[in-house]
Amino acid sequence: MHQYDKVLSYIDYFSTAGEKAGTWVSKPHVFPFVNYSPEMISFIDEVYKTDLIDIEYLSYLESHIPKESNLSDYIENADFRLLRAILTYYVRQERFYDGLFQGAVIDKTIYRILLKLNDAKTPKWAKDEYDCET
Prior knowledge:
Layout: H1 5-8, H2 11-16, E1 22-27, E2 30-36, H3 38-48, H4 57-64, H5 80-93, H6 100-106, H7 109-121, H8 124-133
């Protein structure tokens, strides 16, 4: 079993999750927050069980992506390290920006990260062999 299989098993979920990933909760005298679905909580737990969390994600992102850029614009051409940093950003920064992770689900950023990770776990020779058959 590949070390990311449990994380990648959420690809189908994130392909359709959209706004059902969480709901905004507003209560008197409390800042609004997102109440995430059990699947979202479980996904984040699985991410933490792997080596996908990059503890130096902020400095890495600052040195590789211009400030004020949309991180999702960099997913398609990201190498593994940049992909980890982007994923970590969405997982960790939620505590400072309520709803950030939900936004990344709605706009399919998390889905695209998982597709790229899934693609990266397939050896290049296997992809080349498959491409030749089609």
